Structure formats: C-alpha cells, structure tokens
Amino acid sequence: MLKISKLSLAYPGCVVLHDFSVQPANGLVLVQGGGGRGKTSLMCVLAGELAADAGQLQLGGVCLHEQPEAYRQQVFWADMRSAAHDALTCRDYLATVQRHYPAFDESKLNRAIEGLSLAPHLDKNIFMLSTGSKRKLYLAAAFAAGAALTLLDTPFAALDKVSIRFALTLLAEAAQDNTRLWVLADYAQPDGMTLPTLIDLGD
Length: 203
Known about the structure:
Layout: E1 2-11, E2 14-22, E3 27-32, H1 39-47, E4 54-59, E5 62-63, H2 68-72, E6 75-77, H3 90-100, H4 106-115, H5 131-145, E7 149-153, H6 161-174, E8 181-186, E9 197-200
Parallel strand pairs: 3-8, 3-9, 6-7, 7-8
Antiparallel strand pairs: 1-2, 1-4, 4-5
C-alpha cells in the first residue's frame, strides 16, 4: 500500500534518512529513534505536510508529488504541536473527522471513547484538554477514521496505564488488518508487541 522510494531527509546536525526505500506490509510499522532524531519530521513527510529533500512516496497507487491532495485524503495524521483544531469542541472535531473519511466507523469511535474515558470531555474545547486527554482524543479519531495510512507519533506519552493497555489492544487488532497501514513513531517498541517492519533512526 505504501511505497517509499529513495527518500532522503535531513536538517542541520541530523541526517534522518538517506536514499531510503521500503515497501512495508500492511499492518504496523515502527519508526524508532531517540530524541531529536527526526521521528516527527518523518511522520510529517509521510503525511504529505513536509517536503523531503529527495525521493518519492506512493500510497494506494497515488504518488504524493503528482496528486498531493488525493494522497493526503488517504492519511490520518494529527500533529500534537498544532493548534489548528483547538477552538473546536471534541465532539465537533470528531464530527469533522467523520465527514472527511468515508470508511469512518462509529462503533469503533464509541468503543474508543469508552475505553479511553473520553465521554466527560466531549463538549470541552480542545484547548481546554490536558496533553493526555488531547492525545486520547486524537487516538479515538485515528482508530475510527478507517484511513488507508494512519500515523501515530509517540501515542502513549502522557497516558494513564489503563488507556495505554486499551490503546495497545486496539493496535494489536490493527496489526491483523491487511487492508490498512499504521505507522507508529516512538522511542522503543511497545512492550508485548511485535512489529514486522522497523525504520530505525538511531539514538
């Protein structure tokens, strides 16, 4: 589904990837690296929001450089650093996600809302949320969206143990889905999970 061809990405003092190619199997991919190694930058490239220095990305037969909007429409990516949705309530944000993704699954959303204890926050504006609650909101949207490619950047940071266990359960289920691809960026592989494809950016 995703084909990365001769991808190069660098910024001052750090070469993230050079002439890198991979065509991962659907399921789960881990982007692993230490602090400042470019995990988030690579996720932005895969989302089509940041231009790589060289190389090509193809998703579901759509090349990013030829059809950027068609490529991006297949991707779920929520940048925790962005304030673009902060004025929305959680409920309104989720409705926006539902309108954008044709394969959105409301039953998965309801399950995630319960499993991540989001119900008390649904009518709050996103800017009012703690970092952990904001991350839970984006996780719920990700699990429900049904995107061809879902990008999760350090998804367990600031989560309580119960929410981490629930998120790991949903990711384990996602790993069995051969119709979609999930890319998880983190410092290390989650405990108890085996990810078939690893992109190691180093320490």
